[in-house]
Design a protein that fits this description.
299 residues; alpha/beta; Helix Hairpins; HSP40/DNAj peptide-binding domain; four-stranded mixed β-sheet; 37% helix; extended
């Protein structure tokens, strides 16, 4: 996203596909390698061709426009960590928010107020928190980073249930020079935000769940079982408050449980769960079982 494709073709964001096509052919004739042998023209032609391939494709253009819009709010560094599907989820979340009836009503109500009252509201909206803690989790979840004189690192723990159901969270980061609205649709990544001149906030988003690893929308689980569970019992796998039963007891390959993983962007699909079983032969008070084992194996 270092190069703006609209600026390369010298067109506005609202232009039709016909205008985009005409502008491409116009520039292609000027900078085509067959007519210009210099390196600068060749590089220019590559940029023009790349811009045209994105802006002439409705799907690619939609995603590119979405990245431009979110990049202005969240910053380009933040946009790079999201997949196209996650960006679409953020866009749908944002559109639902601004199209909400209550939001529209409050917006009209605010605009109807006298200017001096609007100014007072805007001034008072500058949140003032007197707290020794950087993270505040009262009515509005936000991080007040004003007045920091050095860079800071924090760790945010996501609730596994929210991750499992693909729930996007929002947090506001307030700096001296600018603020950020950060949407957190997933976990297990690190993002660095510039708050003030030379001051950065490094945030690591994690989800803690014993013996569970998140891989996209799939869950990878390691489960220890004893001999009795292996031969006679149905194995129960529990993740937080979610439970699954396993009848297949393959120790050599992971056991796949279809459509029980993390919820995808579609309301009807989930990822898969892969369970790795490990036979636990550590037996407490093994001396008590020696006679039984002798009878079983006739020794």
């Amino acid at each position: 996203m270092n190069q703006n494709h609209y600026e390369i073709l010298n067109i506005s964001k609202s232009e039709s596909i016909n205008v985009i096509r005409k502008r491409y052919y116009q520039y292609a004739k000027l900078y085509h390698p067959d007519k210009n042998k210099n390196k600068e023209s060749t590089e220019k032609f590559k940029l023009i061709s790349e811009s045209y391939s994105i802006l002439s494709n409705p799907r690619k253009r939609y995603l590119y426009d979405l990245k431009l819009k979110l990049g202005e709010t969240l910053g380009e560094e933040c946009i790079q960590i999201f997949t196209d599907e996650e960006l679409e989820l953020l866009d749908s979340y944002y559109n639902k928010l601004i199209n909400n009836t209550e939001y529209k009503f409050l917006k009209l109500l605010f605009k109807s107020l006298p200017y001096h009252i609007q100014w007072k509201i805007k001034k008072n909206f500058d949140i003032k928190v007197k707290s020794t803690s950087l993270l505040d989790i009262r009515d509005i979840k936000y991080i007040d980073a004003r007045g920091l004189n050095e860079s800071y690192s924090i760790k945010l723990l996501r609730n596994f249930e929210d991750i499992y159901n693909n729930i996007c969270k929002e947090i506001i980061i307030i700096g001296d020079c600018k603020s950020h609205i950060l949407f957190i649709p997933c976990s297990d990544y690190t993002i660095t935000l510039q708050l003030n001149n030379g001051i950065y906030l490094k945030m690591t988003i994690e989800t803690k769940c014993d013996n569970v690893m998140i891989n996209g929308n799939d869950l990878i689980i390691s489960k220890k079982i004893n001999l009795y569970e292996y031969f006679f019992d149905v194995i129960a796998v529990t993740i937080e408050k979610f439970s699954f039963s396993i009848k297949d007891k393959n120790l050599n390959e992971p056991i796949k449980i279809k459509n029980k993983g993390i919820k995808t962007n579609s309301n009807y699909n989930r990822g898969d769960i892969y369970v790795y079983l490990e036979l636990n032969l550590d037996i407490e008070n093994i001396d008590n079982y020696k006679n039984i084992l002798k009878e079983i194996f006739d020794k």
